Amino acid sequence: MLNVTIASGTQDLQQILKLQKLNLIRNLSKEEIQSQGFVTVDHSLEVLEKMHQLAPSVIIKDQEQVVAYALTMLCECKDLVPELESMFERLASLQWKNRQLNAYSYYVMGQICIDKDYRGQGLFDQLYQKHREVYQSRFHFIVTEVATRNLRSLKAHLRVGFETINTYTDELDEWAVVVWDWKPPNR
Q1: Exposed, middle or buried, 50 (CB in 10 Å: 0-12/13-18/19+)?
Q2: What's the pLDDT score for residue 183?
Q3: Which of 57, 82, 145, 157 is the most buried (most CB within 10 A)?
């Protein structure tokens, strides 16, 4: 039976890293990249532990095995992953609903991944619904960037309720910046 929960310790974080490595773009064939999607950033256990201390990530377990994860990355984490510094700078420069993004309380989806054997079962939506359940009272919305060529991921984000607020190209790829507005009552 699958259990949607938050990561609760080093063992969960180590399993996240194992699943991440299996799905890194550099470890996949062109066919897998195109049909199944990919993740781009390779985290360390130390970085995940620091992120977890600030706000735990959401995972799905089958028995004791992590089969899906969605990393919670607060803005305070911007210095932990050098490859993401430009993303945080870009986010600070963007506007949404006629206000600077930084005028809102938000966090970044640091990465989302589902084990190959568990895809197509609604886990993506479950991960995001749990994020909303856990963090909606603290944040106005969640924001992330998705490589536009990662069609599987981009379509899934739009299906959940994200909207594209910006696109740009850098040395790595073309990116869509997407926001999922949670419309908390205190706004």
Answers
A1: middle
A2: 73
A3: 57
DSSP lists the bridge partners of residue 65 as 62
Number of domains in the chain: 1
Residue 83: inside a domain, yes or no? yes
Name residues whose C-beta falls within 8 Å of residue 90's C-beta, 6 or more positions apart in sequence: 166, 168, 177
Per the structure, the complete domain to which residue 127 belongs is given by 2-181
Q: Are strands 65-73 and 58-62 parallel, antiparallel or unpaired?
A: antiparallel
Neighbours of 173 (CB within 10 A): 15
Which of 159, 86, 163 shows the shortest CA–CA distance to 129?
A: 159
pLDDT tens sequence across 77-131 = 988 988 888 889 999 999 999 999 999 999 999 889 999 999 899 999 999 999 9
What single letter denotes the amino acid at residue 48?
A: L
Residue-wise DSSP of 24-62: BGGGS-HHHHHHH--B-----HHHHHHHHHHSPPEEEEE
Say if 186 falls within a structural domain: no
Q: 108 and 73 in contact (C-beta within 8 Å)?
A: yes
Which residues are registered as beta bridge partners of 4?
60
pLDDT-derived band at 17 (thresholds 50, 70, 90) equals very high
> Got the DSSP string for 94-118?
-EETTEEGGGS-EEEEEEEEE-GGG
CATH number at residue 147: 3.40.630.30
Percent of the chain with pLDDT over 70: 94
